[in-house]
């Protein structure tokens, strides 16, 4: 999945400077910086975060980590920013700067406290299922939906298994640290003749036809990042892709000019249908979301059944 966003590792340092302050009663904003440096999972890189003494690589990691937390807060802050005096940003040194109401600061404090004390891992399981479009309504699946109760998922899966022409393709599972981005893929490599060329070789300056072998990858790819939130919720950023090769490959005949005249050769023209989904989910710990991808080149629909849960770190 080369077009996916840049992957980021599990360790994102941030700089500890002061405390945060809420907007004053008359709406005047006071600038503050939330304390981020005591998040246990990130602590190994928090030392020596002074931009004057930190290495360029470390400074880049600090800034990247702070921007990640900034974007998470921006998406899930409750209540959302709705006033010009309310703002959130980050500095190159790795400081998070937030101006907001008292209620917003209380949410931010709860979020950071939860993140600091979170000592688990997040398990993400994605079942890729191909379902004929006309069967979705029969199954009661007309769009994206959420199953908050884990006991409802086996019923859904059993209904899918009993439906004609439904294909269970794969069920990759990843276990990640909070804030970590992880990817997994199940791919097949296909090699085919994409072109021919004429080369002159010894002895006798004879001409030979040389095939140009090309490769493509088909299959499934999954890329996720999970962030624990207060209230036993998990924010999940998910990107998934299926590349499906139509078989048999369509042959195409072309002519090559040689010293002895034109020669007919065959090349392959692969037809690859790509279905891709990129989404952000806010789920209760242990719940399941059903994502329906509507491809433009196929009557079949790609359905992704995603379950996310906290698991103990061993």
What would you say this structure looks like, in words?
This protein is α+β, with helices and mostly antiparallel strands. The protein folds into two domains: about 55-115, no CATH class; about 120-310, no CATH class. Helices cover about 15% and strands about 45% of the residues. It contains four helices and 14 strands. Strands 3, 4, 5, 6, 13 and 14 form a six-stranded antiparallel sheet that branches. The protein is extended and about 85 Å long. Mean pLDDT is about 80; it is low at about 1-50.
What is this structure, in a nutshell?
The protein is of the alpha+beta class and 314 residues long.
The residue ranges in which pLDDT falls below 50 over 5 or more consecutive positions are 1-49
Q: Please indicate the count of domains.
A: 2
Mass-distribution shape: extended
- Which structural category do the helix and sheet elements fall into? alpha+beta
Percent of sequence in beta strands: 35-45%
**What's the gyration radius in Å?**
26 Å
Main sheet record = 6 strands, antiparallel
Order of helices and strands: HEEHEHEHEEEEEEEEEE
Compute the number of strand runs: 14
Total of helices: 4
Query: Helix proportion of residues, in percent?
Result: 10-25%
Amino-to-carboxy terminus distance: 30 Å
Mean pLDDT figure: 80
